Structure prediction request, 226 residues.
Amino acid sequence: DTGVSQDPRHKITKRGQNVTFRCDPISEHNRLYWYRQTLGQGPEFLTYFQNEAQLEKSRLLSDRFSAERPKGSFSTLEIQRTEQGDSAMYLCASSVGQYNEQFFGPGTRLTVL
Amino acid sequence: KQEVTQIPAALSVPEGENLVLNCSFTDSAIYNLQWFRQDPGKGLTSLLLIQSSQREQTSGRLNASLDKSSGRSTLYIAASQPGDSATYLCAPFTGFGNEKLTFGTGTRLTIIP
Prediction:
């Protein structure tokens, strides 16, 4: 499978715990995005990497959120001290080239109890 | 700030009918626009990317049109099938330097066998 992969697919945690998600983009895609989607809404942009550089962050990305892409390949998104409002689907996408067609992974569904 | 509206929010049609989904966006200075489908609890699947210089883009039974100056795009689905049942999302891309896709809430399509 050469698509975008995300791990885990589901995560249930208790409020106050830290969680980390992983995204593996399509090989050779230099751009990587994180979005968050709540029920009944469209995805909302969180952050963007070009290679290993984090070039844009949304105001949605509070100081409890941190994302990395250390070698310009896979990326991790960590949420510290989770809150019930963090419950959502976290989607990763990657792209390359002049048209920037974004391809999405299956998402990680987070439930904070 | 780009805002995206999709009308209708939900649509049910009998199998075999042709249908049109509408997307409007407030900032017409876009680079391209993507249409996606999303099955319940899943990630997004890219259907079509239409560049700002194009008026139409076709893939199988799908045809997307773009009227950039009026801030509108439509997705035409011919000869609908039950497997087309999903939520359809449009997302304009403003261009490099403002990397994110902006989504509306989508149109939930149900094809009745």
Remarks:
- Chain B has a mean pLDDT of 94.
- Chain B touches chain A at residues 4, 31-32, 34, 36, 41-46, 49, 51, 89, 91, 93, 96, 98-106 (CB under 8 Å).
